[in-house]
Specification:
The complex is a heterodimer.
Chain A: H1 4-28, E1 36-39, H2 45-49, H3 59-65, E2 69-74, E3 79-81, E4 89-95, E5 98-101, E6 113-114, H4 131-136, H5 142-147, E7 166-169, E8 174-175, H6 177-182, E9 189-192, E10 196-202, H7 203-212, H8 214-235, H9 244-253, E11 255-259, E12 264-266, E13 274-280, E14 283-289, E15 292-299, E16 304-305, H10 307-311, E17 321-324, E18 328-334, H11 335-344, H12 347-368, H13 370-381, E19 390-394, H14 403-411, E20 419-425, E21 428-432, E22 451-453, E23 460-462, H15 472-476, E24 483-490, E25 504-509, H16 522-525, E26 532-535, H17 538-550
Parallel strand pairs in A: 6-7
Antiparallel strand pairs in A: 1-2, 2-10, 3-9, 4-8, 4-10, 5-7, 5-9, 11-18, 12-17, 13-16, 13-18, 14-15, 14-17, 19-21, 19-26, 20-21, 22-23, 24-25
Helix pairs in contact in A: 7-8, 8-9
Chain B: E1 4-6, E2 11-13, H1 14-17, H2 21-44, H3 52-76, H4 85-106, H5 115-148, H6 158-175, H7 178-192, H8 209-212, H9 214-220, H10 225-256, H11 262-281
Antiparallel strand pairs in B: 1-2
The chains are: A alpha+beta, B mainly alpha.
């Protein structure tokens, strides 16, 4: 026993040292010139547990996530993130205040008000709903947005805020997590309203914390209910006609469901008891055909399923299977709650019928048209629905000159960032170039934080200077779009972790959309035949396919 | 709307053969303007290479030659030149056409005199012809590759892919029964030997693979179930190798036609410099 203890101590010290270096790697590059006064060193599990947000976790877990957590001290007036940008971390306010605003509203701090206040300033058109909810939550409606001039980013808001307005978050508030976890661009600009002390948590830790603790998941869900769910219900074609008071009540009753890749949300033939609304990610609809599954369609953010099962009494079981394509978030409404909605608001029923008819028509159409079904299956498997910028080459015009690859190599220090190979659909080649996914799973598991959103649109980049070549990102990428380059050098004797020392030095490499140049990506700009295209959605792919097949 | 030229018998789809109808129209307009200037010249003075008009055509031709040649510099410096490579290529193609017209006007549409003038004239004509051929090849072969072949392969990786296919086929045959091994040796082995350049792919993209595999159906009936699987895999590999040969042959053509164009362009530029110096000297 006694002999074993020092050994464990040394091991623990080694582990602590490794975690400490990881922490340094992950945070050392965090916009040092953006207003940060100081960043903490790696915090021990004991230190982390002092903060309310971590108190439910056990120490070994906190040690594991500690490299992805830091406490940062920010100067007043520092911009934490800007609207439209992607971030890979969430913030928890320890001290000070943070202002959230749309750009049009900056500089109007005097008009600001806390997002949560005991006696909120009631927005125009506000109707008193449920007293308990009104006490704590300010809800903005689309109508009110329209009255207060134009509204931006309706499709991806995680915080409802009209231009010109500013909201303040104070001690104990959590923000940025919905965009970070769902891969949405931030809907607002966040700026420190005073000197602030913030806990910053990167996505890997955030995901683990959410998976590990029901309390934390509930907390994030509750923030979502307060800040976004009401607006999403209001915008949904199903509930747009319902009064706000009713939606406030409904938003409290729904269940929020988180799915991992390939999770089956509901299986064909099982009893149907709920309707689902997709919050983020994609859901595949399929049904049994012979011994296999025929893909009928897919659903994206804002779409719902379960209407036919709710409306037709004969449909007691799910007619199709619904499964998550990647990580997805759903809102689940029980049929009993919805039936009460329909009873109280008969106008909702017509919306449900419309959705049901559309779903049945879509499923029937796809069921009969095997080509369409095959295309959807292909698009889901190959990531066309997930990609924000997929490099597609029309092989009918491509002279295989490889000028695109050479241009890419010339722009990136001699190393091309993609391979002119991939899957073919008709005459279009989907190359193995980074898709800059809506939910980039390559970001999960990077031990140094080298792979990240570049804060320029949807661009995901790898920082060569902190990549240790572990190939986690390449292994995680479902589309083989990350290549490990052999740098023809070896790690030095001072490399950390020690296991790297003397090993061949690899470097992960992927397309960065040439975001530092002012023009189009080099591959597109340098294709002499004009046959290299970037497509941002399955619809754009379909359009390109139709266009190029006509030529 | 697609641009179409109506002919007596059928509509010719311009997009299939001309990548940018806008550039074609600009070229036709420039050519028409040049011809109109030529007609005015014919009206007002003599059509001769030695007069001011002739010199002006010559200078324009030399400037055009230099400009269209800049395309190869643009190709080697991605990102630096203005406009996309596609527009540069279109300028290269149609500017080249205009260059030939200027040369013909410079020589007053007469046959040249002297070795240098003949060389310039023939090279200019050859560059135009090889350029048109190259453009047609670039429009035809990609479609042939895409419509006829199931696989897509990088030219530089073809040897590696062929080697992998050959090794798998040889090991399968080695482990197979005598019948399979003999069939492989007599009918397939030669096809796996190396990447082959076969002109047949220009007219039959399958390379006659079906005919070569016909015997396989004869021996199939004599094989056990496991051996049939081996035979099927060998046939798949043979078809894959045939596709690699097709890629090799056709992609080679896409690359090699440049050897009939670029070196001659360099010689022409050199001779134009000599021509200009000679004119200035004398």
């Amino acid at each position: 026993m006694a002999a074993g203890q020092p050994g464990r101590q040394i091991m623990a010290e080694k582990t602590l040292f490794r975690l400490s270096v990881q922490h340094q790697d992950r945070w050392s590059t965090f916009d040092a010139d953006s207003g940060i006064v100081s960043l903490s060193e790696k915090l021990s599990a004991e230190q982390l547990r002092r903060y309310e947000i971590f108190k439910d976790y056990r120490e070994p877990f906190l040690e594991r996530i500690s490299p992805d957590v830091t406490v940062a001290s920010w100067k007043k007036g520092s911009v934490l993130f800007e609207e439209g940008s992607y971030i890979d971390l969430a913030f928890f306010v320890l001290e000070g205040e943070v202002e959230l605003s749309l750009k049009a509203g900056q500089g109007q701090a005097e008009a600001s008000r806390p997002i949560l206040e005991t006696q909120p300033t009631k927005p125009v058109g506000w109707q008193e709903a449920d007293t308990a909810a009104a006490e704590k939550t300010v809800y903005f409606t689309k109508t009110q947005f329209q009255k207060s001039n134009q509204i931006a980013f309706l499709s991806s808001l995680d915080i409802d805020l009209p231009p010109g307005d500013v909201m303040r978050l104070g001690k104990g508030e959590f923000f940025g997590e919905i965009g970070a976890l769902n891969g949405w661009p931030q809907s607002v600009t966040a700026q420190t309203a005073s000197d602030c002390l913030l806990i910053q948590i990167r996505i890997p830790a955030l995901r683990r914390m959410k998976e590990k603790s029901e309390v934390f998941k509930d907390r994030i869900d509750s923030i979502y209910r307060k800040r976004s769910l009401f607006r999403q219900l209001k915008e949904s074609p199903l509930f747009s006609s319902c009064p706000d008071t009713f939606l406030v009540g409904l938003s409290k009753k729904v269940e929020l469901v988180s799915c991992r890749p390939d999770d089956v949300v509901v299986a064909e033939g099982t009893p149907a008891d709920s309707l689902y609304l997709v919050r983020s990610g994609f859901v595949k609809i399929s049904r049994r055909l012979g011994e296999g599954q025929q893909v009928l369609s897919y659903l994206s953010k804002g779409m719902s399923f379960g209407e036919p099962e709710l409306l037709f009494e004969e449909l007691e079981d799910w007619a199709c299977s619904y499964s998550s394509v990647g990580y997805s978030e759903l809102v689940k409404f029980s049929f009993s709650d919805l039936r009460r909605v329909v009873q109280a608001h008969p106008e909702v029923e017509s919306g449900l019928w419309e959705q049901a008819a559309a779903r049945i028509k879509q499923s029937g159409g796809s069921g009969r048209d095997l080509h369409k079904s095959e295309f959807i299956q292909f698009a889901l498997e190959k990531g066309l629905v997930e990609g924000n910028s997929v490099l597609v080459i029309d092989l009918n015009d491509c002279t295989r000159c490889d000028d695109c690859v050479r241009a890419c190599a010339d722009t990136h220090g001699g190393r091309p960032r993609f391979v002119r190979e991939g899957d073919r659909y008709a005459n279009l080649l989907i190359t193995k170039a980074c898709y800059h996914c809506q939910d980039p799973v390559c970001l999960i598991g990077c031990p140094t934080g080298a792979i990240r959103r570049a804060n320029v649109g949807e661009v995901v980049e790898i920082r060569d200077d902190i990549c240790i070549g572990c190939s986690n990102c390449a292994d995680n990428c479902p589309y083989d779009a990350i290549v490990m380059h052999d740098t023809r050098s070896r790690w030095g004797d001072d490399a950390v972790p020690k296991s790297l020392r003397g090993q061949e030095r690899l470097l992960a490499s992927k397309c960065d959309l040439c975001y530092t140049s002012a023009s189009d990506p080099a591959c597109v700009r340098n294709c002499p035949q004009g046959c290299a295209h970037r497509v941002g959605s399955i619809e754009e792919f379909r359009q390109l396919l139709d266009e190029r097949q006509r030529v | 709307m697609k641009a179409r030229f109506q002919t007596a018998s059928r509509a010719v789809d311009l997009h299939r053969w001309v990548q940018s109808p806008a550039w074609l129209k600009a070229f036709l307009a420039a050519a028409a303007l040049t011809m109109a200037v030529g007609l005015i010249q014919l009206w007002t003075s003599e059509f001769r290479s030695g007069n001011n008009w002739g010199v002006a055509y010559g200078i324009t031709a030399a400037v055009l030659l230099a400009s269209v040649s800049a395309y190869s510099i643009r190709r080697r410096s991605p990102g630096r030149g203005p406009a996309s490579a596609r527009h540069w290529l279109q300028f290269h193609i149609f500017g080249g056409g205009l260059f030939l017209l200027m040369v013909l006007m410079h020589t007053a549409f007469r046959l040249p005199h002297g070795v240098l003038a003949w060389s310039l004239w023939i090279l200019s004509l050859w560059l135009a012809v090889s350029g048109i051929l190259g453009t047609l090849i670039q429009r035809w072969i990609p479609r042939l590759l895409t419509s006829g072949l199931a696989t897509e392969a990088n030219y530089d990786r073809l040897p590696d892919l062929a080697k992998a296919v050959r090794e798998e086929a040889e090991s399968l045959a080695e482990a197979g029964s005598i019948a399979v091994r003999r069939y492989f040796q007599d009918n397939l082995q030669e096809g796996f030997a190396q990447l082959r350049t076969r002109p047949i792919f220009f007219v039959d993209i399958t390379g006659g693979a079906q005919a070569q595999l016909r015997q396989s159906s004869h021996i199939r009936g004599f094989l056990e179930a496991d051996e049939q699987k081996t035979l099927d895999r060998l046939i798949e590999l043979f078809q894959a190798k045939t596709e690699l040969d097709a890629h090799h042959t056709l992609q080679k053509a896409l690359r090699w036609w440049l050897y009939g164009h670029v070196p001659f362009a360099l010689v022409l530029i050199l001779l134009v410099v000599v021509h200009v110096l000679t004119v200035l000297y004398y």
